[in-house]
Design goal:
This protein is mainly beta. The protein contains one helix and 14 strands, in the order βββββββββββββαβ. Strands 1, 2, 3, 6, 7, 11, 12, 13 and 14 form a nine-stranded mixed beta sheet that branches. Strands 9-8-10 form a three-stranded antiparallel beta sheet, with no helix packed on it. Strands 4-5 form a two-stranded parallel ribbon. It comes from Sphingobium agri.
Length: 166
């Protein structure tokens, strides 16, 4: 079991010998108790890695040790506090707000799901906190890294690993 360290002050992610730049939320970081849906804040704390979602044809999963699956048409993630499936994967379309996991950009070619606010989810306290590919700007509350760095990091991740954001 390993801990991947994210230093919010320096914008660095460290895993073993890997030391790489990362982007965090557009509003910086916040204590988990203060995290709110849509606030653009990355929650501080230690979060388990739940699994990986991959866009077909973009990444070779051969070296991935975490559980993973391909993202399919209609895959989404509920971000609506009124939705009984809040902060859970859902199928689109649905009568509640949800983010599509098949984005126009490449940010979600790889999604490492972090176990923030999921055991059980508390409506309104933040959803879809992922480690994903960088778009060259701050995120909506996730951690983002460059594609090349993700390809180095993914094979290092194993069941039981966590991400610690300080």
């Amino acid at each position: 079991m390993s801990v991947i360290h994210v230093d919010s002050a320096t914008g660095r992610l460290r895993a073993g010998a890997l030391d790489i730049a990362c982007a965090l939320g557009r509003s910086g970081v916040c204590a988990p108790a203060h995290k709110r849906e849509g606030d653009g804040c990355t929650p501080l704390g230690e979060w388990p890695l739940r699994g990986v979602l991959l866009r077909p044809g973009k990444i070779d999963p051969a070296a991935i040790q975490l559980s993973w699956r391909w993202v399919r048409e209609g895959d989404g993630w509920s971000d609506d506090p009124a939705d009984p499936a809040y902060n859970r994967p859902v199928h689109l379309p649905r009568p509640f707000s949800a983010e599509s996991l098949l984005r126009e950009d490449d940010a979600y070619d790889v999604i490492v799901i972090l176990g923030h606010n999921d055991a059980p989810p508390v409506p309104g306290q933040g959803s879809a906190i992922f480690l994903h590919l960088s778009e060259g700007r701050p995120t909506a509350g996730c951690i983002a890294i460059d594609r090349g760095d993700m390809l180095k990091l993914l094979p290092m991740l194993a069941p039981g690993d966590t991400v610690e954001i300080v």
